[in-house]
Amino acid sequence: MFFQAADGFWWLDTLEGTLERLWATPDELRDVLNTEDGQDQYLLAGLAFGAANQGVVPGPEQVYSFTHPPQLGGELTLDNVEVLDFVVSLNILGQIHRQIRDLPPGTPISGITIS
């Protein structure tokens, strides 16, 4: 997710649970998103195009999400892509990141609570 602020453009990486200011101007952001690498990194374009080709297309208030979130071991594969309400998706991902953020990498996760 991208945010515009007075100091530039920020990237909320919902896979990693990080927020960074990466671009100072709209042109910088646009230049990155006009590249194949930028589209793959920030938009997961390959998965989005693949899902659309299979008829999985989000509605006006929906986004692509993962059936089994990668933060919990899900794979970044087409068969793990689903359509979910935008607000619900961000809420779930935020809850997951809050619960796992202090765990060392590789820690087995036995349970997550989603409210």
TL;DR?
The protein is an alpha+beta fold. The chain has helices spanning 26-33, 36-43, 45-53, 86-100; strands at residues 2-5, 8-13, 18-23, 62-66, 81-85.
Topology:
Elements: E1 2-5, E2 8-13, E3 18-23, H1 26-33, H2 36-43, H3 45-53, E4 62-66, E5 81-85, H4 86-100
Antiparallel strand pairs: 1-2, 2-3, 4-5
How widely separated are the two ends? 22 Å
User: Helices and strands, in N-to-C order?
Assistant: EEEHHHEEH
> What about the largest sheet?
3 strands, antiparallel
Number of contiguous helices = 4
How would you classify the helix and strand content by structural class?
alpha+beta
Q: Portion of residues in helices?
A: 25-40%
* Domain module count: 2
Rg, please? Answer: 15 Å
Number of strands: 5
Low-confidence stretches: none
Strand order of the largest sheet: 1-2-3
- Summarize model confidence as the mean pLDDT: 95
Global morphology? globular
Strand proportion, as a percent range, falls in 15-25%
